Amino acid sequence: MAKRRIVIVGPAHPLRGGGMATFNERLAQAFQENGDEVEIVTFSLQYPSFLFPGKSQYSDEPAPEGLRIKVLINSVNPLSWFKTGNYIRKQKPDIVIFRYWLPFMGPALGTIARIIKKSKYSRILAITDNVVPHEKRPGDVPFTKYFLSSCHGFITMSRSVQEDLQRFEPTKPNLYLAHPLYDNFGGITSKAEACAALNLDPTYNYLLFFGFIRAYKGLDLLLKAMAEPGIKALKNVKLIVAGEFYEDAAPYHELIEKLDLQGQLILRTDFIPNAEVRHYFCAADLIVQPYKHATQSGVTQVAYHFNKPMVVTNVGGLAELVPDGEVGYVVAPEPQPIAAAILDFYNSDIVRKLEQNIKLHKQRFSWASFTQNIYRLADSVLLRRM
Question: Average of pLDDT values for 330-353?
Answer without folding.
Answer: 96
